[in-house]
Amino acid sequence: MDSFDWSQVSKIYKEGIETGMATFETIVPSYGKWDSAHLKNCRFVAVYNKQIAGWAALSTVSSRQVYRGVAEVSVYIGKSYRGLGMGKALMQHLILESEKEGFWTLQSGIFPMNTPSISLHEKVGFRKIGYRERVAQLHDVWIDNVLFERRSKVIGTE
């Protein structure tokens, strides 16, 4: 995924924002801001009938060297493509490629009402590790976050 894809990717991101259950963001950032917040490797799009149907990307969780193998997942599927397996395919590819890049832990913070995302994460091997109560506000409403983690079975196992 690069700036060439941003027009379609940002539309899908906007759809996610508009659900009110995918992110605390309220506006789509510029490509430059989004690009600087996400790792250059491990960002992918799913294509269906020559259209970008969804995207997934990783961002760092810490600049500290000890956390170099830990990343946070973002995954968004366009509303016209939900329920077609795009999310699962993207996540499986993201997991495979993240392990090639040396990531041993992937994590996600998901709104509790976002049951499709919770289900997707569980299907690809994430497990619930915690719950952050009233972690932030969205439109003046406190929102909780369910924390999920996937430990690699090939990186960081020794």
How would you describe the overall organization of this protein?
The mean pLDDT is 94. This protein has a six-stranded mixed sheet. It has helices at residues 6-19, 31-37, 86-100, 115-123; strands at 43-48, 51-60, 70-77, 105-110, 127-138, 141-151. It has one domain (3-151): 3-Layer(aba) Sandwich (Aminopeptidase). By secondary structure, it is of the alpha+beta class.
Summarize the structure.
The protein is α+β, with helices and mostly antiparallel strands.
Strand order of the largest sheet: 1-2-3-4-6-5
Radius of gyration: 15 Å
The CATH architecture can be named as 3-Layer(aba) Sandwich
- Shape category: globular
The CATH topology assignment is: Aminopeptidase
User: In which range does the helix fraction lie?
Assistant: 25-40%
Secondary structure: number of strands: 6
State the main characteristics.
158 residues, alpha+beta, globular, Aminopeptidase
Helix and strand layout, with pairings?
Layout: H1 6-19, H2 31-37, E1 43-48, E2 51-60, E3 70-77, H3 86-100, E4 105-110, H4 115-123, E5 127-138, E6 141-151
Parallel strand pairs: 3-4
Antiparallel strand pairs: 1-2, 2-3, 4-6, 5-6
